[in-house]
Design goal:
heterodimer; A: 5-stranded mixed sheet; about 30% helix; globular; B: alpha+beta; about 40% helix
Chain lengths: ~725, ~150
């Protein structure tokens, strides 16, 4: 394989604007327009059609496995009336004005919050429909046949005895004014949207090894960079000695990062860079470095949930809730702890910077949020932002890791590139150890919940205290997520809750940062979902009610939210044979709404906490609105379940004197195939707007497992479960 | 130093220091990038290649220990078992991020070459060293079963 050739094709693809290309998109004003591709920079192109009829969908979301490359392509193909085999896709260049995510406030180009389909559903359908209409209009003019007598099926336009491929009309169509309000298909006419037999577009290259990830960039003259970083947050380089590295073949040089956070090693290849880094002797200045251990963080959090919370999240009178609970005939109280967690995407973080002829740079990156690194690189290299291009590559997983508040790894690459004469591309490669120790973890959280019940077993008061390190607070770019001092991502999933709870108080206390934290697949819902669903289960058990019936009794309002939540709960219970577990098996259930989607899961286990739990089966029901690619929806549920359960079983990041204690998959053990049994996913048919699927499968998975374990064993309130004495078979 | 390696049916001479893992020779010297770097300590299986048909972790195989062995990467797969596995992986859309899948496929081909009709427990045992952070395990099991059927047909 000639990598240099594929690099050229990236750039040609990015700049593909030859006169023979029709580009359809939505201009910043919101108007649809067709233009000759030479003017493509004026537009927001989602559909490109070349003279030979090749259709290309331009994908504004990155592909880290969740399926937007297939999903957004499906939307275009559906409205254009072509088969999935007749359409290609490519990733959009960085241009936040054109490719912003509406779910991110419309200013930022990026992927996250399970928003790709929610953001793009109308936009991409309109782009496909507009392309269809101008092509038909062009054919109509060419043949002198009224548009209403023409049809377009599978890329062929026919009518009044004429028949031709859509490619014949690309040039003519590019000169027409595109409709501003194209006619979208009625859902009853869909052939591709909702079709479970549509395959992923990215399967073939990922099955034969040709898929190109950022790690696969191999320019002939590139340098590979590895960085020895401070092991403690806030530490800096005092001095370093690279004499041990000088004998390593391929070592070029080492130098201190401008921000003194580490020592950069430049080498000819990856192995030389890693070897040379290992040979460095660095003395750190730890005078301003973090020195706490995670035991201290644990103590701080557990103390915080026992004190008056700093923020009144629910804006309710705490004393009223306290009075209700004081008068309860039964009180259920639990305190929970959730550790730091690393994302550990399969592809370690990496990106490459290469100079362009016009004095700018191209970043090759599995880029989750192009707006961030574009700005960060421009600032570090003192370039106008338009001189920073981004070629988005396949991302080998992310789970939130590739989008950080300071564009951490892309900034490192920019610093390193800026330390060179820029004649050679610079490829930054993180090792797995860099990844596991590199910060931006799911923050640690504690919850303390007291639920008061009346004599009939009804909830009459719910007091909920949360303490943890805010992701957004104090981080300028994320300040919009903070309202009245409350970081929504710290409390989402607890308040507001879809359940009917008569008197609820929710309070929050932030703690001082011990490390860097970030969004981790399903964010706050990773802990809030666990707590809410463990408590519903514990309370049902305390009053002797069936956990499904008890939840349904708190979901009786005639609102879409409660009805959809109740509906997935009932579906999971029915499909999972709730209450009919074979001898020796136990079942747990949980339901949670996140990212506008509703997911319920039944986990069935054998064994027990003392002798070894085996996860036999997980049954899932999901309502994510219109399931654009039902098989992708299923795959995302399978993935979210595995991700949630795997970490809950045995993963945590701990600090000792500020230093991370885990280093690799040997002590941050991923879920393995033998850990988990069958997963069966049922997708609720729907014509509602599509909502999230990348994350919502995760929140119910761990509490459903915990609830199954609690049937004949302990209620696990401290994660990971193995630290609470649960053994797994 | 110059080292001769038999890779995907051809013999190549590469310049690599002793102690260099086969993984980095394949990726950085031969520029074959289908074989992935995931952990560097043989804990994830993303770097799995075949040596004389048997799956090995290339990140823990030093180049000087390869000797005369025939090394096969995902790019060089060409057996009946490999075709069946890749067909099954495609039919079932196993992949998500896809980064571990070269290694998964190399292991699955190894399994089916030594055991054409593995039981579910045998699949779990054999594949347990190949981590998938997207947790595509349900589909990996189904695809191996399907590949076994394709081989029988």
């Amino acid at each position: 394989m000639n990598i240099t050739t594929s690099r050229r094709s990236f750039l040609q693809g990015a700049a593909a604007s030859s006169a023979a290309v029709l580009v359809i998109g939505m201009a910043p004003s919101g108007l649809l327009a067709a233009t000759n591709g030479a003017d493509a920079t004026m537009l927001n192109p989602f559909v490109k059609i070349s003279n030979d009829g090749t259709v290309t969908a331009v994908i504004k979301h990155f592909e880290s496995g969740q399926g937007p490359a297939t999903g957004l392509t499906t939307l275009i193909a559906e409205e254009l009336g072509i088969s999935m085999d007749a359409i290609n896709y490519e990733f959009a260049p960085v241009n936040p004005q054109l490719y912003a995510n509406s779910a991110f406030g419309g200013m930022t180009q990026g992927t996250g919050g399970s928003s790709s389909m929610f953001d793009s559903y109308s936009q991409y359908r309109q782009a496909g429909a507009a392309a269809r209409e101008v092509l038909l209009q062009a054919a109509s003019q060419e043949w002198g046949v009224p548009v209403d007598q023409l049809t377009m099926e599978d890329g062929t336009i026919t009518g009044a005895g004429n028949s031709a491929s859509l490619g014949e009309f690309v040039e003519a169509a590019s000169r027409l004014q595109a409709p501003q309000d194209p006619q979208l298909k009625d859902p009853s006419q869909f052939k591709l949207i909702g079709n479970a037999s549509v395959h992923r577009k990215d399967t073939p290259p990922k099955v034969n090894g040709t898929a190109q990830y950022a790690m696969d960039i191999q320019f002939d003259n590139q340098m590979v960079v590895a960085i020895k970083r401070t092991p403690r947050l806030g530490g800096t380089v005092a001095s370093f000695d690279d004499s041990g590295a000088k004998d390593i073949t391929g070592f070029i040089r080492a130098d201190v990062l401008p921000n003194k956070a580490g020592v950069v090693v430049f080498a000819d290849d990856t192995w030389a860079a890693f070897q040379a880094r290992d040979a460095l002797d660095v003395t750190w200045d730890n005078s301003a470095a973090e020195s706490r251990s995670s035991d201290q963080v644990y103590d701080e959090l557990m103390a915080a949930v026992n004190e008056a919370p700093k923020y009144n999240v629910s804006n309710t009178d705490q004393s009223e809730v306290a009075t209700a609970i004081d008068q309860a005939s039964q009180v259920v109280e639990e305190t929970f702890y959730f550790p730091l967690l690393a994302h550990a995407p399969m592809e370690p973080l990496t990106c490459t910077l290469e100079a362009t002829d016009d004095g700018g740079v191209v970043l090759y990156d599995g880029c989750q949020t192009p707006t961030g690194p574009q700005g960060a690189i421009a600032q570090i290299l003192d370039l106008p932002s338009e001189k920073v291009q981004i070629q988005t590559m396949f991302a080998g997983g992310s789970f939130g890791r590739r989008s950080t508040s300071n564009s951490d790894y892309q900034s490192e690459a920019a610093y390193a590139f800026g330390m060179t004469d820029r004649s050679r591309p610079v490829k930054l490669v993180w090792s797995r150890e860099d990844d596991v120790t590199g910060g931006f973890y799911r923050p640690a959280f504690a919850h303390k919940v007291r639920v008061g019940l009346d004599a009939e077993g009804n909830i009459i008061g719910w007091d909920h205290r949360i303490a943890g390190q805010s992701i957004a607070k104090g981080v300028e770019v994320n300040d919009s997520a903070v309202e009245n001092g409350i970081d929504h991502s710290s409390v989402e999933g607890v308040f507001p809750t879809p359940y009917t709870i008569p008197v609820m108080f929710a309070g929050l206390t932030d703690i001082k940062p011990a490390t860097t934290v970030s969004w981790w697949r399903s964010v706050g819902n990773t802990h809030t979902g666990y707590v809410m669903e463990s408590m519903m289960d514990a309370v049902a058990k305390a009053v002797g009610r069936d956990p499904v019936a008890f939840r349904l009794a708190h979901l009786t309002e005639d609102t879409p939210e409660q009805q959809r939540m109740a509906s997935v709960l009932q579906m999971a219970a029915e499909k999972g044979n709730w209450g009919k577990a074979p001898d020796g098996h136990a079942q747990g259930i949980a339901v949670h709404m996140s990212f506008r989607s509703f997911v319920a899961e039944v986990v069935e286990i054998s064994g027990n906490a003392d002798d070894g739990v085996q996860i036999e089966k997980v049954t899932c029901a999901v309502d994510c609105g219109t399931p654009v690619n039902p098989d992708v929806v299923k795959a995302q549920m399978e993935s979210g379940i595995g991700y949630g359960i795997g970490h809950a079983m045995r993963d945590e990041i701990t600090l000792e004197g500020g230093v991370v204690q885990q280093s690799n998959f040997s002590d941050y053990e991923p879920l393995r195939i033998a850990d988990i049994g069958e997963i069966e996913v049922h997708v609720v048919p729907s014509t509602e707007i599509p909502t999230g699927v990348g994350e919502p499968g995760t929140p119910p998975s761990a509490p459903a497992l915990a609830n199954a374990i609690a049937v004949n064993g302990p209620r696990v309130t401290r994660l990971p479960m193995d630290k609470s004495g649960v053994t797994f078979a | 130093m110059a080292i001769t390696i038999k890779l995907n049916g051809d013999t190549h001479t590469v310049d690599a220091e002793p102690g260099t893992p086969l993984l980095w020779v394949i990726r950085d010297k031969m520029k074959l990038t289908g074989t992935k770097f995931g952990c560097g300590i043989a804990a994830c299986g993303a770097c799995t290649v075949h040596m004389d048909g048997d799956p090995v972790r290339s990140c823990q195989t030093n180049i000087e220990d390869v000797g005369d062995a025939e090394v096969t990467t995902i790019e060089g797969l060409n057996s009946a078992q490999a075709h069946a596995v890749q067909q099954a992986w495609t039919e079932i859309d196993v992949v998500q991020c896809g980064y571990c899948q070269s290694g998964q496929i190399m292991s699955a081909v190894g399994l089916l070459t030594s055991n054409a009709t593995p039981t579910p427990d045998e699949i779990d045992d054999y594949m347990n060293g190949n981590a998938c952070r997207c947790a595509t395990y349900e589909r990996i099991r189904a695809a191996i079963k399907r590949a076994s059927e394709i081989m029988e047909a």
